[in-house]
Recover the amino acids of this structure.
């Protein structure tokens, strides 16, 4: 089995204690296959909800472009049910940010992990730009 997502950053994304930013979603009928399992694309959408909540909680949704998204599917989520997604920063590059996420079922079992690398862009030029220090600090600190 390949290295767990997040391990290179010293973080276990399968451990709920690794997160302090949470989004809970109700699994919809549209999210499932004929066996009542949540489909692979639905996991990605649920993870996206967690990332959007993460940005909104920090008072900004920066101009980010996804450069890489990697998902490890660990066990099935089923309908009816809920998905609880934790999100955290794993690191910054000059213009990139790496987020780690874990998705947990109603019993607290980790169903999937995700590693997302996004690049901060200049909307006018479409090119990458460095993270302003003020914005980076806002991303690192939860609002009071």
């Amino acid at each position: 089995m390949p290295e767990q997502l997040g391990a290179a950053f010293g973080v276990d994304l399968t451990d709920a204690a690794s997160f302090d930013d949470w989004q809970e979603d109700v699994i919809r009928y549209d999210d499932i296959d004929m066996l009542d399992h949540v489909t692979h694309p639905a996991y990605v959408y649920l993870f996206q909800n967690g990332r959007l909540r993460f940005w909104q909680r920090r008072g900004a949704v920066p101009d980010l472009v996804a450069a890489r998204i990697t998902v490890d599917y660990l066990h099935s989520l089923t309908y009816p049910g809920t998905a609880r997604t934790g999100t955290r920063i794993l690191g910054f590059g000059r213009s990139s940010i790496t987020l780690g996420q874990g998705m947990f079922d109603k019993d607290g079992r980790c169903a999937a992990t995700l590693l997302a690398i996004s690049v901060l862009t200049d909307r006018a030029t479409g090119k990458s730009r460095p993270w302003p220090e003020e914005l980076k600090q806002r991303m690192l600190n939860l609002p009071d």
Remarks:
- The first strand starts at residue 21 and ends at 26.
- The mean pLDDT is 90.
- The beta strands are 21-26, 64-73, 82-92, 96-104, 110-120.
- The helical segments are 40-57, 133-140.
